[in-house]
Amino acid sequence: MIREVLRFIIKSNLVIEVIDAREPDLTRSKMIEKFALNRNKKVLIVLNKADLVPRDILEGWKKIFEREGFPTVYISATMHLGTKILRDKIKEVLRGNEGTVIFVGYPKTGKSSIINALKGSHSASTSKIPMAHGYTKAIQKFKIDSKIYAWDSPGIIPPDGNELEKVIRGVNVDKLEDSVKAAIMLFERIRKYNPNAISETYGIEFNTPYEFFEKLALRRGWIYKSTKEPNIDEAAKAFIRDYHKGKIIYYVPPLSMIDDKNSSL
Ligand SMILES: Nc1nc2c(ncn2[C@@H]2O[C@H](COP(=O)(O)OP(=O)(O)OP(=O)(O)O)[C@@H](O)[C@H]2O)c(=O)[nH]1
Ligand SMILES: [Mg+2]
């Protein structure tokens, strides 16, 4: 799967790396960045889900990535905020030249939502691309500007790292060995950065993560028929899915901003 992504990077002129603005450090892929830069491809970073993060924090991350040499924009694909800025940035980075763009990123960072937001009324064109197994599948390109196209199917980077990192990197919850354990790790991380996020999102009061998942399961009617116990596994999965859907508001500030403003974090 990753090989397919690398092949598209090689065929493109610009790589747009989509990351989750709540967790920029954990949802960027330095491997993909290096691969692209080594092949003389430009890399533009998009911090998506910006509706969940305050502007000064977004500006802080943008500065950090730009200092590293990556042009960076932040947007909210689902709220259609920043799409013009993104379009203009793509033009600027390509310096008026013709080009094809590939969107890459971990699952659930919002690649498809961005593509949909950018498509708007622009027409799509099709080209035949040979795929694995000897089949030829039509891969759509769509127009971003008069001379700029983007591949319609984004490159998905398989989630790697430890259990918590995999969850933050959009792993499919059904692939987790122990979804309750993983959900508790996510729960603790969210609570560290926004102590009220979970109770506010769900309107549930609790003292422990376990109690939260029990109450969530009971409220949704997820109960084992035989024992009448709450199915906390189902609740844990739903919680992780809600996180992926951008329903839980918290963010990790850049280290430099933590030191400046709030050394207790
Ligand atoms: N709050 C918020 N949620 C968003 C935003 N963009 C996408 N989402 C949500 O995040 C989830 C994933 O979005 P997708 O566009 O499907 O992400 P993707 O990167 O294409 O995901 P894969 O195809 O699984 O790799 C969806 O539930 C979106 O509604 C955003 O700007 N803000
Ligand atoms: Mg997608």
UniProtKB/TrEMBL annotation:
Residues 3-159 form the CP-type G domain. GO terms for molecular function: GTP binding; GTPase activity. Keywords: GTP-binding, Nucleotide-binding. Signal peptide: none annotated. InterPro entries: G_CP_dom (IPR030378), GTP-bd_ortho_bundle_sf (IPR023179), GTPase_MTG1 (IPR016478), P-loop_NTPase (IPR027417), RsgA_GTPase_dom (IPR010914), TRAFAC_YlqF/YawG_RiboMat (IPR050755). Gene3D superfamilies: 1.10.1580.10, P-loop containing nucleotide triphosphate hydrolases. It comes from Sulfurisphaera javensis. This is 50S ribosome-binding GTPase. The keyword tRNA processing does not apply. It comes from the Archaea. Belongs to the TRAFAC class YlqF/YawG GTPase family. MTG1 subfamily.
